[in-house]
């Protein structure tokens, strides 16, 4: 059995533990910002961060006082702090052989002193640190380190709560909040590298009639059946979310309009063949709206609105069909 010491050297396991939280490149969240602000106030430092160490970078979930969102891993103080189980304290980085030539010391933000507590997951992996940073030499006293340790434990608790809240209990799909987070990642990737992605919205047709005629337990089985079918048909890289009562969304990375239309048609036809268990098996259909990422859709709200408009067109056009919200070409004047 792997010991806690062994896990300090199990990089594959550590990265897998980090990936389970699905937190990298997500927007700022108040729960984490409140913790780093407390660090600044209680320890009297100008900078604090929730830092997560990926394979080749450190990424900050929260970073008040720091004007950077990530750094290469090889300059990260946090990369040193995750190599042990105890807090790492650097009273003066300019006098420390590990850091005196570090660009974060010699340049912006001018780190001089640092205290970091590892963020250890319940299964014993250090995935990052909660740190306090100052631009002057200082010795952090035991009481301050105890505060930092307590707040680091709260960071991990928040990450655990966030992970649990990311799933819809009935369908097993991502919650609306978690799905929006996946959309935000796709938008960030499009901003940086122009990587395509498409959004599919689907709404189960005449769902109220199912509840009214057969009861809510059958309605619940319908939700579950559609979610299970979509999970079976989607690619591992695709994300499925339940964003409303009978409304689901699929995010298809690396997928343009044409391929997204074909995928939506495949889902649509499969749902029409689905049988929901009842005294007499029930058949349902779904309507789909498709929208590829692009100009005018670089925020989750506008991207969702484009797909929703197409979904409304599919319902108005007779249901059990797929409609596309085409991208508008933007040309330089």
Rg, rounded, reads 24 Å
In total, the number of strands is 13
What is the succession of H and E elements?
A: HHHEEEHEHEEHHEHHEEHEEEHE
Largest sheet, in brief, is:
6 strands, antiparallel
Strand order of the largest sheet: 3-2-1-6-5-4
pLDDT under 50 segments (min length 5)? none
Describe this structure in words.
By secondary structure, the protein is α+β, with helices and mostly antiparallel strands. The chain contains eleven helices and 13 strands. The chain has helices at residues 4-7, 11-21, 30-43, 77-81, 103-106, 142-165, 176-193, 207-214, 216-233, 257-273, 300-316; strands spanning 47-53, 57-62, 70-72, 88-90, 113-120, 126-134, 197-204, 239-242, 247-253, 275-276, 282-283, 286-292, 322-324. The strands form three sheets. The protein has a six-stranded antiparallel beta sheet with strand order 3-2-1-6-5-4. α3 packs antiparallel against α6 (142-165) and α8 crosses α9. The longest helix has 24 residues, at 142-165. It is elongated, with a radius of gyration of 24 Å.
Helices and strands, with pairings:
Elements: H1 4-7, H2 11-21, H3 30-43, E1 47-53, E2 57-62, E3 70-72, H4 77-81, E4 88-90, H5 103-106, E5 113-120, E6 126-134, H6 142-165, H7 176-193, E7 197-204, H8 207-214, H9 216-233, E8 239-242, E9 247-253, H10 257-273, E10 275-276, E11 282-283, E12 286-292, H11 300-316, E13 322-324
Parallel strand pairs: 12-13
Antiparallel strand pairs: 1-2, 1-6, 2-3, 4-5, 5-6, 7-9, 7-12, 8-9, 10-11
Helix pairs in contact: 3-6, 8-9
